[in-house]
Amino acid sequence: MAENSGTDPAVETNTEENAAASATIIKVTVKTPKDKEEIAIAEDSSVAQFKEEISKRFKANQDQLVLIFAGKILKDGDTLGQHGIKDGLTVHLVIKTAQKTSGGGSSQTSASSGPGPSQGNTDGSANSSPAGNLGTPQGSGPSPTPTQPPNMLAGFGDLSGLANLGMGSANFMELQQQMQRQLMSNPEMLSQIMENPLVQSMMSNPDLMRQMIVANPQMQQLMERNPEISHMLNNPELMRQTMELARNPAMMQEMMRNQDRALSNLESIPGGYNALRRMYTDIQEPMFSAAREQFGNNPFSPSRTENREPLPNPWGPPDTAATTTSGTATTTSSTTSSTTPSVSNPLGISSSSLGNGMFNSPGMQSLMQQISENPQLMQNMLSAPYMRTMMQSLAQNPDIASQVARPSFPKMLQMFAGGNASTPTPEVRFQQQLEQLSAMGFINREANLQALIATGGDINAAIERLLGSQPS
Amino acid sequence: MDQHDSTFGVQLFICDLSRGMARQLSPIMLGKQLDGIWHTSIVVYGEEFFYGGAGISSCPPGGTMLGPPDTVVELGNTEVTEEIFLDYLSSLGETTYSGDKYRLFEHNCNTFTNEVAQFLTGNKIPSYITDLPSEVLSTPFGQVLRPILDSIHIAPPGRNVISCQNNHG
CA–CA separation, B121 vs B78, rounded Å? Predict the structure, then answer.
């Protein structure tokens, strides 16, 4: 019977299966959820005949078969042609499970992993609580994860950091203050942050730290005025040491205590007090003020040196008096939010200030503005499942995360430095620097611009950068 | 006309997981414009069905934590009854669409919706949605993020379709 397949259409020997006259065989794909098969059938067969073939192939009872094509259920009495089923098309098949319980029961075991450890798929949170809070079970879906110190995550793409700003407050500045307040009121939080391997790995990368600090425009101004500071930043050894300290709050406190004791001894040496004072006013105070201005009140402002006209704070934080000379040196209360710069920790780095520094870059700011215009956005964003699991996986793979952050970080800095809506484009901002560079002989304007963006307008660093990329 | 089976309308709900951030940041981060990170679900029989790290789940329309959709696309009508559909879903859930098979790039909520849409109506979902993973992966940044993103399972809470079979009469 197979001989007649193509030769003699008139002679019909395949009459068993095909009822009608010209039996053009078409190949129809029949797709079940589990499987798919190609079935050859005559073009003008009826659905019943089709089902017969199918039941043989799929080893199911014809009654159990439900055929669907283009949203229609194929009834036995119809023909394939009626539904437009042609060669190469796909028809869907559902094999009805006769008894509901058995059908449902067998599918339980494989799918039962669903509701329970759904987050367990991402390996549950073995991490300390900051990450742990992220993996809240699905039941508590819409409610934002409470009190997450977002700062340390800020380095990894402020998207992830943003998701943690779950305070529901529309004004970003308020948010930041809330964050600080919480941080200050809950010292354990800080140690929790520190314990997070994500943070630790981030902090052990001095380059990253340096970039983050440098990205802060206030810091940049500071650096211009006090070249020693930039030297300090450029000294990896020192950075690493500082990072170590920042990472380990206990150690830091101890060191600070020792330093303070040593310093007070110094005071007793004749002339020592002056040395101390000089040290303070030249180095610490400007830096401290720069760091403090982010947070508002500057109780240490009394002796403004001459090159310290009040730094315009472009982000206009709601601090009422940036120059209150209240004289109440509240060193103790401020330790958590902005670590008092001491000799051993010259940059006054603490975990929270790092994060805040990142937040305050102008690019972030415009983003924040847009978000704060639509407070719902914030709420929605942090409740996005995407965010939570992203954080979880980030937290569990600090290596990957730091690797990711490193290559993309300069890009992100670029983005924030050059890509925000409210301030002029980098070309305009760096107009002066660009001219200077081209006057110096760097004719490649593109490269110049890139370098300037990357260094935030610092001509010297940009030149170094440009020279570094040109081996000649 | 064999209309003794009533037909059911099938809709596609499209949500932007990034809540507008992708539209703003994608040109910079990825180098190309992506209008959103699309998450889709099928709405039929008054229920929203979607696939995530928890397998196939369902909930009242607009009831996932993503809220009401950004866009709704009418996919057409289907004659498939709810019973058959749920049978179909449970088979899918056992095999190709179990929770652990979820892959953010290759086998995600949109893969599921595409397949279900074709099952129910014969129509596919708009291509800009199914093209998204390859769009992202074709950028260097996407490549860098890939290992992290691969481990993400988006699992919005909802009723697990498989287990609700037992409750149906």
Answer: 5
Yes or no, beta carbons of A111 and B84 under 8 Å apart: no
Report how far residue A300's alpha carbon sits from residue A302's, in angstroms, rounded to the nearest whole number: 6
Quick one: pLDDT at residue B67?
79
Residues of B in contact with A72 (CB under 8 A): 78-79
Beta carbons of A138 and B156 less than 8 Å apart: yes
Q: What is the pLDDT of residue B81?
A: 86
The DSSP result for A17-34, as a single string, is T--SSS--EEEEEEE-SS
What distance in Å separates residue A281's CA from the closest CA in chain B?
41
Least-confidence region, from A89-93, B25-29, B114-118 = B25-29
Superfamily of domain A426-468: Ubiquitin-associated (UBA) domain (1.10.8.10)
Enumerate the domain spans of chain B. Answer: 8-160
Label residue A247 by pLDDT band (50, 70, 90).
low
Segments making up each domain of chain A, as ranges: 25-95, 178-287, 426-468
The class (CATH top level) of A25-95 is: alpha beta
pLDDT in tens, A392-421: 555 555 544 444 444 444 444 444 443 343
Task: Tell me the C-alpha distance between A211 and A209, whole Å.
Answer: 5
pLDDT at residue A313 in the model: 67
Question: Using one digit for the tens of pLDDT, what is the confidence trace for A58-75?
Answer: 888 888 888 888 888 888
Q: Which residues of B are catalytic?
A: 39, 109
Which tokens sit at A229? 């500071």
User: How much is the mean pLDDT over chain A?
Assistant: 59
- C-alpha B87/C-alpha B139 separation (Å) is 40
Pick B21's closest partner by Cβ from A75, A113, A159: A159
Architecture of the structural domain at B8-160: Alpha-Beta Complex (3.90)
- Number of neighbours of residue A33 by Cβ within 10 angstroms: 22
For chain B, where are the alpha helices, taking DSSP H only? 21-29, 82-94, 109-121, 127-130, 132-137, 140-150
Q: What residues contact residue A403 under an 8 Å CB cut-off, 6+ apart?
A: none
Report the predicted TM-score, pTM, of the whole model to 2 decimal places: 0.41
What residues of chain A lie within 8 A of the CB of B25, using their CB?
A: 159, 415
From A260's Cα to the closest Cα of chain B, the distance in A is: 44
CA angle A387, A161, A214 (to 5 degrees): 145
Chain A contact present for B62, CB below 8 A = no
Query: What's the gap in Å between the CA of B60 and the closest CA on chain A?
Result: 15
Query: What is the predicted ipTM?
Result: 0.78
CA atoms of A312 and A206, how far apart (whole Å): 29
CA distance B120 to B9: 10
SS3 label, residue A92:
strand
